[in-house]
Amino acid sequence: MTVIILLIVLGILLFVIEFLLIPGVTIAGIGGLILTVFGVYKAFNDYGSTTGVWVLIGTILLSVFVIAMSLRARTWSKLMLKTDIKGTVDRNLTEDEVKQGDRGKTLTRLAPMGKITVNDLVREAKSIEGYIDAHTEIEVVSIEGSRISVKPVKT
Predict the structure, then answer these.
(1) How would DSSP label each residue in 80-91?
(2) Domain count, the chain
(3) Which terminus of the chain has fewer Cβ atoms in its 10 Å neighbourhood, N or C?
(4) Are both 20 and 71 inside the same structural domain?
(5) pLDDT digits (tens, 9 = 90+) for 37-67
(6) Number of neighbouring beta carbons within 10 Å of residue 49
């Protein structure tokens, strides 16, 4: 009977892995089905139909219980990352903030993308003339929505 219980428990565990970790029909789901069905079959074969029916009913109830407990939010809260992500998405620039011809400096190397500061704003920009080293004076060439294209200022 220990082998039957082990087969059924491993089968249900593979089902939980299938539902929560590996979505789709994979080896975990197929393996879980095979182990569970084989465990119930073995119970019918080794102990007769009465015990087999009880094992089948127990397997169904255990499966429903385990899946219901696995899908509850509180079950996984101990494993969840509890960090808030604080950030913003670049929005479209207005003429008051940055316009063509404004000058600024690179904060990081533009290869070809990097961070710049223009008019006391820190934004991401793209170099139109290859790589530009950090702390180099740049000029805004064009603005398309939130995309800024720059070139180095020739001195």
Answers:
(1) S--------PPP
(2) 2
(3) C
(4) yes
(5) 999 999 999 999 999 999 999 999 998 898 7
(6) 10
The pair of three-digit structure tokens given for residue 25, joined into one six-digit string:
């029909």
Kind plus residue range of the DSSP H or E element containing 152: strand 147-152
Residue with tokens 């000029």: 139
- pTM for the structure as a whole: 0.47
- Residues 86, 81: Cα–Cα separation, whole Å: 14
Structure tokens at 18: 């299938």
**Is position 95 within any domain?**
no
Digit-coded pLDDT (tens) for 1-23 = 889 899 999 998 888 888 777 76
Task: Identify the domain containing residue 64 by its residue range.
Answer: 2-75
Give 83-120 pLDDT, tens digit per residue.
776 666 666 777 778 888 999 999 999 998 999 999 88
* Unique residue bearing structure tokens 């800024």: 148
Output phi, psi for 105, to 5 deg: -135, 155
Determine contact, residues 134/141, Cβ cutoff 8 Å.
no
Q: Residue 106 pairs with which residues in a beta bridge?
A: 116
Check which CATH number belongs to the domain holding 133 and give it. Answer: 2.40.50.140
